[in-house]
Amino acid sequence: MSETWNMVMLREKNAVKKYSGTLTIGSQPHIKTNSYISQVLSGFREEHPEIQVIKERVSQKKLVEGLLNDYYDAILIADHDVKMVRNVEKLTLFYSRVGIVIHKKHPLFFKKNVTLADFKDSLFLRYKPMEMNPEDDYLINICAEFGFYPKITAEIEDFEEFLFLIETGEGVSLVFEEAEVISNMNLRFIPINEDVPQKYLPMQLTRKEKNHNPVLNSFFEYARRYSNLHQKKDI
Predict the structure, then answer these.
(1) How far apart are CA 19 and CA 23, in angstroms?
(2) Is the CB of residue 108 less than 8 Å from the CB of residue 122?
């Protein structure tokens, strides 16, 4: 309630600035994802100073709920988290590579030439995704390429708790590259270098097809130009 109230008050406060439109964007809280969408929004606002831009960082569950409830005009989210969402338009802005993350006390922390196959007997923690079909599950699919099914012991919705459990050595995890992981001195991120499907996950700007906010079309046109400046990866 307090978050909703603050947003309403912000909109009312900025109404005196005579904005001709408002754009509300949701993003996953991770540093890399947030930084990317912030740069896109900054450039868009320079071209359209008459548009009020509001951005929030929340979990993927709240992002999807907010999109479906028309709280957000668009969200930046990993493709696999919106596989089951219908009647949406998606624009891939960038790709995030997948890798195994382990704690510094893990026996393979300092080993060179580590592959995912070395973890076939390990316990896996998982940052809980949204509902998806088995064929879209990158964790299961990538592990299958290395000849095993992961022993998933826990699925955690809160990203901070998820990192805490990895840092305490509760298990390993297959995650996409984020600054919170690769810059953590207690963790090692080992990217998947082998040629397997889904080793690069699309991060997609997603909107409802029936969203009638006229500002949204202009934003997607700008975001498409911005995304074309960045290298795409085969998935």
Answers:
(1) 11
(2) no
CA distance linking residue 224 with residue 127, whole number of Å: 29
- The per-residue pLDDT for range 23-39, each reduced to its tens digit, is 999 998 888 889 899 99
Q: Phi/psi zone of residue 52: left (φ > 0), alpha (ψ -120 to 50 degrees), beta?
A: beta
Q: What is the distance between the alpha carbons of residues 232 and 235, in angstroms, rounded to a whole number?
A: 9
For the stretch 36-50, pLDDT in tens is 999 999 999 999 999
Residue 235, pLDDT score: 42
Using CA atoms of 176, 159, 23, 49 in order, give the dihedral in degrees to the nearest 10. Answer: -80
Which one, of 33, 107, 38, lies nearest residue 77 by Cα? 33
